[in-house]
Amino acid sequence: MTLLAGCGGGSDERAEACSALDVRTAVTAEAASRVLREVVDAERAALETLDVDDPLAARFRNARAKAEQALASFTRDTADSLSMSPSATIVPTARRMVTETRLLRSQLCD
Question: Is residue 57 scored above 80 in pLDDT?
Answer without folding.
Answer: yes
